[in-house]
Amino acid sequence: MASKRDYYEILGVDRGADDQTLKASYRKLAMKYHPDRNPDDAKAEEMFKEAAEAYGVLSDAQKRAAYDRYGHQGLSGAGGGAGGFDSGQYTDLNDIFGDFFGDFFGGSKGGGGRGGNRQRRGEDVRYDLEIEFEDAVRGTSVDIQIPKLDACSRCEGTGAEKEDGLTQCPTCRGRGEQLFQQGFMTIRRTCSTCGGRGQIIRRPCKECKGEGRLRSEKKLKVNIPAGVDTGTQLRLNSEGQASPNGGPSGDLYVVLSVKEHPVFDRQDYDLHCTVPVNIVQATLGTEVEIPTFEGMESVKIPEGTQPGTQLRLKNRGVPRVNAAGRGDMYIHVEVHIPTKLSREQRKVFEQLRENLPAAGADGDKGGLFGKVKNLFN
Fold this sequence. Notes:
CATH class of the largest domain: Mainly Beta
Radius of gyration: 38 Å
Structural class: alpha+beta
Number of domains: 4
Low-confidence stretches: 78-116
Number of helices: 10
CATH superfamily of the largest domain: Urease metallochaperone UreE, N-terminal domain
Order of helices and strands: HHHHHHEHEEEEEEEEEEHEEEEHH
Strand order of the largest sheet: 10-11-15-14
Helix content: 25-40%
Number of strands: 15
Strand content: 25-35%
CATH architecture of the largest domain: Sandwich
Distance between the termini: 96 Å
Oligomer: single chain
């Protein structure tokens, strides 16, 4: 007969490992080799049993002390090892694996503990809402009307007549779960007959016909904070669908879509707009009126402004959601060059041509022609 492997080696921990380290290692191995995940795999089942045996000994202070001192021989009378490990015992894996194996072994979210009337949470609902650009910047409130399933008031969501509509489930006898023997373990699973409720409907509710919910429409006010953008989700707690068996309702998620603005382009919390000026305004400088969300504001265009110049107005952008401050506004100056001139206008430009140096002349050392000239000199 082959010698038994060292328990510390099986769990992959050192001899001084604490309880948390032991539990974490065992959980990892159990998840990997559990028979439900490895059907018809004898080797995986053997590895699972081996890990369970090792953890069963090392997690018990008395057994661990005996094992550390005498090895496997020290467990012959301590209820552990090959002779003492009870392959028919009930192992409460929920204590080891927590919420993960609560579902893995048939648990149910929102179940409210083991056994008895496991209530299922209602479904979440999505509502797509389109809003104006100004409302996204300033914030607003909107009334919406949503179709939903509400808990039946007659049966309070149970789906059964109040007096004698519910009876104990004959399969699980009111526990809401069934026990199955798999190898050396007893495993819990949600009862397939009652779905974990522990009860079945004997007399359906006359109002909802046993559904526990009724279709309705509900008007809700949605408060939209300043600064939201396309894709922002607003959650309204418990405004989703009612539970099918008296549990908590789901949530309503309002997903926003913001319309485009004819003047402003938004980038994160900053606003961008383009301001056209003519060539004289760009050359001599001017002042223009810019629309902001606080009203019209006068902005100075400096003398000699070049096409593509960007001006910045601090704190004139979009408010930051759930934070202090706001973005900035960027003004992009677009210089318009006339394509048609009157006779008088042409005379003015011809006079300017005589008086202004040509681009790239000697006075313009940084121009393209100046750079080419310097290259060949």
